[in-house]
Specification:
The structure is a homodimer of 261-residue chains. In chain A, 61% of the residues lie in helices and 0% in strands. Chain A is an all-alpha fold and 261 residues long. Chain A has a single domain, classed as Tetracycline Repressor, domain 2 (Orthogonal Bundle). The longest helix of chain A has 25 residues. The first copy, chain A, is elongated and about 60 Å long. The two termini of chain A are 29 Å apart. In chain A, 42% of the residues are buried. The interface between A and B is large, with 62 and 62 residues. The structure holds a DNA duplex (30 and 30 nucleotides).
DNA sequence: GCCTGTCAAGAGCAGTGCTCTCATTTATGG
DNA sequence: CCATAAATGAGAGCACTGCTCTTGACAGGC
């Protein structure tokens, strides 16, 4: 799960620990200015409208000079993608942190709502990370860590919920669905990556209730992003009018199906 | 729901009933050739790589001549979008038609699997219709009719299922979640648009089980596309390895939650 | 003080969408 | 049958893009 962010250092994207030289300082500053201008332009015209030349114009520099800081347009886009993942992850984290720890359902709902709110505020950045992969495509490995923040947040909340089998009312809990071994294996790997190996139930729960729940949690993550994408991209345009309420309804359904109390 | 496809005739996209002149015939032919070449190019390089000039080169004509048939690159893309919607809709319809009528769950599953199979076979076309809207965005009204085919297919299957309340085992059915009035209204409008006004339960089912089911059906449509997008765009790359099995698992969960027998 | 590495700027290449003009071909009405 | 009108193709050209290469200026380390 954890990837190497070290490769970034090769073209000095992230802030080095100590910008010793004045040179390095002004370089970092200009790098930020470029990516800020690019983000502004992205918000205006979308990822297709992002032009290195236009960014250079806005900053009053030659287009060729920008290449000193970002080796290509795609690298600039990658930087913006990482920024977007980080931004939406931070927004969700902050919203979740504001809810009392005991209110698991409230925390879950806060994550979902914050994600949607950020998406509505930054539609083009959202499309950049959750829409179709932009150019010749190829997900840089540097993006997977910031991209995992929100799903990890959701899984952490789920982990605090009482075990699925003994929750409030087992009758109301969603019934089990036959799960292929390969899916079981994937989910076990995911659980081990989160909580360390040997955690959770391999066979402790008679019908694999924990696996069912984890499988549904991954579905919930899909549903969250799918629903926001549908709203933003207009796929339910003449069907749902009050999308905020419909979104909340969906998330409440998921919370109940997941049996988060 | 039903939009005017007539505006298309202005630039002769659809096949007129009778191509009287030889001129009209060769025009329709060339229009097809252009859109075919464009689709081929789209499959190779994605929507960003689609170039009017390259299409013209492939057909051995001047780039300016293409504009006699498609007034802009965006209009060509719109034509491809409509074609893609139609293609995936036809694939789903054909797959569904091959299942015995009585096997509702099998028919539903066939629709889902066919949609995924088409998406894996035509990833760029899928990204075109279900990814982020391409350029300056704006969904042409001509696309909404072909886009509705699959969800309508799913709703038709759902309509054949026995009423939610009296189905196999009410205890196993998913529990109800409070539904805001605005969402209720949207769902009633949707139901009326499908089966005519006055159909379905306004208050006949005590806790609005039909509304719950319809709400979950829209969620299922979101989940289907969201899941395919996640697979295609790599959002679960290091989490799910056997995506085919995981996809089936998801759809089975949905079928059970929807209580399709 | 020199030398080396960093930097900005400009010119230039190949490509794009799109518009305009001009010549040619086709269909139609008198 | 022929003239007029419409439709079509080709070419040049504009403004723009990402990107590369070269040139000249500046600053930091020896």
């Amino acid at each position: 799960m954890v990837s190497d962010l070290n490769s970034w250092q090769t073209h000095g994207m992230t802030d080095r620990p100590a910008p010793r030289n004045a040179r390095a300082r002004v370089r970092a500053e200009l790098t930020r200015e470029i990516s800020d201008a690019a983000r502004r332009q992205l918000a205006d015209t979308g990822s297709d409208g992002l032009s290195l030349r236009a960014v250079a114009r806005e900053l009053g520099m030659a287009s060729s000079a920008v290449y000193r800081y970002f080796p290509s347009r795609d690298e600039l886009l990658t930087a913006l993608i990482i920024d977007a993942y980080t931004a939406v992850g931070d927004a969700a984290t902050a919203a979740e942190a504001a809810i009392p720890r005991a209110d698991l359902a409230g925390r879950w709902l806060a994550v979902c709502r914050a994600t949607r709110a950020w998406a509505l505020d930054h539609p083009h950045e959202y499309a950049l990370i959750f829409g179709s992969p932009v150019p010749g495509y190829r997900a840089p490995t540097d993006t997977i860590d910031p991209a995992a923040k929100i799903p990890l947040l959701m899984l952490a909340i789920l982990a605090e919920a009482p075990p699925a089998a003994q929750s409030r009312s087992a009758a109301r809990a969603a019934p089990a669905v036959s799960m292929p071994r390969s899916v079981q294996a994937d989910l076990h790997t995911l659980r081990a990556a989160m909580f360390g190996p040997g955690t959770g139930s391999t066979d402790s729960n008679e019908d694999g209730a924990d696996d069912q729940r984890l499988g549904r949690a991954v579905m919930a993550w899909t549903q969250l992003i799918g629903s926001i994408s549908f709203e933003l991209f207009g796929h339910l345009n003449n069907v749902i009018s009050d999308y905020a309420e419909y979104f909340d309804f969906q998330m409440r359904v998921i919370i109940r199906d997941l049996d988060i109390i």
